[in-house]
Fold these 4 entries.
Entry 1:
Amino acid sequence: MTPHEGKVAIVTGASKGIGAGIALRLAADGAAVVVNYARAAGDAEEVVRRITEAGGRAVAVQADLARPEQVAPLVDAALRHFGRLDILVNNAGIYGFGRLDDVTPEAFDAHFHVNVRGPLLATQAAARVLPAGGVVVNISSGVAKSPSGLTHVYSSTKGALDVLTRSLAIELGPRGIRVVGVAPGFVETEGNAHLVDDFAPPLVARTPLGRTGRPADIAAVVAFAVSQDAAWLTGTTIDAAGGLVF
Ligand SMILES: NC(=O)c1ccc[n+]([C@@H]2O[C@H](COP(=O)([O-])OP(=O)(O)OC[C@H]3O[C@@H](n4cnc5c(N)ncnc54)[C@H](OP(=O)(O)O)[C@@H]3O)[C@@H](O)[C@H]2O)c1
């Protein structure tokens, strides 16, 4: 029997990148997966196709996490399609870089809406139906703890998310629901493909394990975080960066 047989997971932002890797891994581990996306329906359907062709269960569900009214329907969709919810992975996120002069109120709001308010409202909706043993995973980033002068806003969103990981764990712990963060280093994805040539070499040079991360690396840590082996883990964020400190 696979470790998550009978479990149901929502992975936000699972049409590509790290989220797609997490969806594929949780499905391979036996969970039925809601593959959330904002715009890329075709990419999400491709992830669903890969899961179902491998014998798993998945459905693509559109919901823009920046729009509060679209968040609770995502949880409703999990219940409608699969009858329950056990795992929420708050992965959807955006990252724009720039110096202090480049910061705009619009960019600030866009980042906080997707990266902080989205996970908070998704957890609020999920917590109404998660059973004891349920798990919420927040995908943070190494730049929360070691920001750069190019990531004022993005780093702030992930710092806020790490605080939510702690505070939500405190509220939900008595119900047997765990909240765990996973903080990747540099992972090559569709979202940062245009940055790889400039950013990857200096980061790899500072990475003890000597390469960039892959979505499957992060998915493996998420698979651990939601497993019974992590039953004593909550309110903490696990670094998954090959030893890189930004
Ligand atoms: N890549 C890295 O090096 C790295 C490092 C540390 C942390 N992270 C974090 O890991 C997560 C995933 O990053 P990634 O590089 O895999 O991103 P990515 O390749 O850009 O993919 C982003 C995913 O999030 C979805 N998304 C974006 N805005 C959304 C919204 N408003 N509502 C719902 N879904 C939305 C996208 O959906 P559509 O395709 O439909 O637009 C897509 O599925 C983010 O939280 C990011 O901050 C990434």
Entry 2:
Amino acid sequence: MAEKVYGNMGKILRIDLTSRSYEIEDSTKYHQKWLGGRALNHILLFRDVDVATVDPLSPENEIIISCGTLGGTSFPCSGRTQATFLAPLNYSGWGDTNCGGHFGPEIKYAGYDAIVIRGKAAQPTYLYIEDTKVNFMAAGDLWGKGTIDTQAELLAKHGEEARTMVIGQAGENLVRFANIRTELTNSMGRTGGGAVFGSKNLKALALRGTNPIHLYKPKEFFEITKKLQDDIMDPQFGMVHGMVYKLLSQYGTPGMTHAVGQTGMVPIKNWNQCGIWDQDKELVTYWADEWGIRRESCFRCPIHCHASYAIEKGLYPTRGGGPEYESTVAFGHKCLVSDGRKVLKLNAVCNDYGLDTVSCGAVFSTLMELTEKGLVDRSFTDGIPVEWGGADSMIKLVPRIVFREGCGDKLAEGAYRLTKPLGEEALRSVYHQKGMVATGVETRSTIGSMLQFAVSPRGAHHLSGLPTAEWINIPAVAVYTTGFEEAGDIRSYHPEAKARLVQYYENLFELPDSMGICKFPYGHTGMWHDRPEDMEKLWDYFVKSLYYATGISYTKEDLMDIGERAYQIERAVIVMRGIKREDDMPNWKCLNEECPGEHPIGPVPLPKIDKEKYEKVLDKYYEIRGWTKEGIPTRRRLEELGLAEAADKLANKGLLSGT
Ligand code: SF4
């Protein structure tokens, strides 16, 4: 191991729950090529697990939890945690998820770049890690408890300075869209990480660390991160930059709903309408003004996009961490629930049970459409009617899902698996890619977003690389990222412009997750997007901060290669699990139905996706990625990226012709 490691911690903690043992691995060999966080997780999972065949809910699966290279430092918004695993929800099987809060930095303070967990405990267990001491603790008393009580008990036992990561009853009962929670406001949602915890009889992690993070040039690092923070908070920095900062600070992500809806991108009524919904006032700003208690933030964040709220009176008393845009749209817009109190209640109940709100909302909105079409009736849901706007039924059904009681057993499989046995016509109502229903994005609105959602390895999700310059509608930055005028045209099917745009953002989005920093201010929401030179400034901050932190001179190109490498690993895994070109095609609704709705930019209704033109974009995207016409990575491209091992694994599975 290197004598002194800077920025990173230089160690990976490997825990085997079956044998109740652990060991330490040197991680310094990974930093140059994989940074840390998400990219590091990817290569570890790829090497450790037979990713082609392992059942996500078996002991052979791993869950790898990390922070990232800049996590836990003075770099603004450096409190992220990344988890990677084979996923039980989406049929592509790729699982990764990320959240804010304070847990990620504690991994580093405990002395590690990543914690790898495999095996299965014989009894319910939680891990209490104090620096080098790993304690396998009995969790029988915690099993059956919600995420709030579980965290409270862990803090009472191990001190308020401990950082906790827990599952609720949903994870224990292997609900395929169970999530992992930290504190009151942070969810590692999507793809079912909570069920992977549950399958291992793992209830929680509690960490306490006392190690410093050594910085290569601490003075320069502090100065640059201070300047970066000033730029983030500067209202004069740029119109879009300043507007995003203000909206996030004041109202969090729900405050951006109307900005997102400008091109029709907000889905309404299970993607049967889109754009601006005239009944969403209580969901987007009113709740924060009326019921909000205080703004909150993750580690070292000057934006504080989170909030806590309390409703003391009425039929829906509740309190907790405020919903994000995604939870708001999932229960509100997609299910036509306009009463803010009911959406807050659903959000709180799901958070306590450890249930992903996006996938839960998708189960309900899909069932509402199936009910309207006469394809199911209330007998399907134990006599409980599931109809548009019916929040009381949703509140009743959530516990059945969590405990897999009655109809809840099939609802716990998620919208795609729930609907598939009902036949092709029913499946048309499921707005999914690769078996995972989309987050709050109507992808017919912008062609780049359609491509990104369709090819996303874990299924329909914006955080895999939604092209910001396109949906924020900043043509100059779209040109900067691709060299093509057409990249910024939301309706253009220009193959190379759209393919390069999506590839750029996919690679870029791997980086914040690998550095342990938040995507909101660094690529996803429109900050640094007013002018091309602002994007250059952001790159300069990344490159210099990484050098001052680690002593490693990464160039912008090196960083984009790390993003590309991480993305190619995701692709190699899902191809080995059977994903084909047809799985990269838009879902049925996108290809066959136009979408009505009010929005000021772009055509009304949104046209269906032109299949012929889309196929040409997909061809070009594959070509740029270095994949075959079937979407399989080629040996040449993998070797260029230093991924011969991935090429060999694909070849061993008979998926590579050797070119
Ligand atoms: S912008 Fe929001 S999610 Fe990101 S670090 Fe800040 S508080 Fe956390």
Entry 3:
Amino acid sequence: MTGRRDRLVLFDIDETLIDSGRAGTRALNRAFLDLFGIKDAFKDIRMAGMTDIQIMKEGLRVHGLSSMDGEVDAIVRRYLRFLSEEIENPWRRVKPGVFEFLEALKEEGIPFGLLTGNLEEGARIKLRPFGLDAYFPAGAFGSDDEDRDRLLPIAIRRFSTLGVDVSPEDCIIIGDTPRDVRCAKAHGARCIAVATGPYSRDSLTEAGADLVVDTLNEREVCLDFIKSDHKVQQVRRTDRG
Ligand SMILES: [Mg+2]
């Protein structure tokens, strides 16, 4: 034993690891067109950081439809089928520095996984074409709980069955939205926010991220932070009262 505390790094997917080329939105739109005859159902719905089930329920709500379990199940089935078609698009991209970052974690012997609002099957569909799926043996997904804030303990449990025993304070969540920051803070974990999505560096700092980087090309500063014992930054409140 080295005495160094174990770490567990957990990655968000959309706009953190990849840009799916809006495959998810198109798959959801097709599901709503197929089921309800509604075109462009998700045109005005901001979904960054939401879990898939929350997004589907929001779509139902916005269009005045009930979100009984049967409806959500029907959407999920169509969404996954359409997603595997829509991910085959020319706009999809891996975010800068992702492969190098994952290889560096492997080299350091730091375990890593997923913490994502995507349903697990959807996550695999999105990652597979990039060759990223194989990097992530485990994680917690939007299919485990529709509330992202409850996913960290699930990821920790999964990794403990793989021989990685960590507490929430040993975990670092990497994501691109204030919702990623919040799901870390809810358990005393740390968060690296990466400004490769819709949120600026300033807004991610304001949300309480412990470290904010432009891209995962900033590998050294991220690895130093992951290996360090930097305490969690207090969430700064700009509002009074
Ligand atoms: Mg994201």
Entry 4:
Amino acid sequence: MQRLDDLMKLALRSNICYLATSSKEGVPNVVPMGLVEVLDDSTIAVIDVLMHKTRKNLAENDNVALAVTDVNRLAGYQFKGKASVVSTGEMMEWARELVKKKQEKRRELLADRLKSETDPERISKIKKLMEVTYQPKAVVLIKVKEIYRTMWGWDR
Ligand SMILES: Cc1cc2nc3c(=O)[nH]c(=O)nc-3n(C[C@H](O)[C@H](O)[C@H](O)COP(=O)(O)O)c2cc1C
């Protein structure tokens, strides 16, 4: 089994990732994911706040791939592994705290944008976005089995 190194962990935590699942018939589905955390050298957690087809696929087929590109470091990775879904216990407490922190940060960023915005339509959109809150429904844990580089950058 390959292990995640520090640059991989940084890429996963600080960029939008793309989670690919597939149905039991092999129909693929890929969606962007921002609530991604690395738990240890071989486990990635993705928090489910809006998943639908992704969860349906996971119930039928636990094979997943997660891709990320770190444009700042010109590095990209694909992680393949097996997923399991946790929807109770300490893991959910941890997910609630993480989502709360990420939402606070997002609100601060939007508030900053609001300061320089003059278009009333955009101001109203940003204000609406600031009101959106997400509640974790589950945590998707990915046990990483294979790692592929999709881009070679400053880390090599
Ligand atoms: C930038 C961005 C980040 C997102 N991050 C998450 C996330 O962390 N968790 C989540 O459940 N949905 C997230 N979504 C929503 C999913 O991409 C997707 O719309 C959702 O899973 C429903 O699609 P599905 O039915 O194919 O699963 C995000 C969407 C965008 C545009």
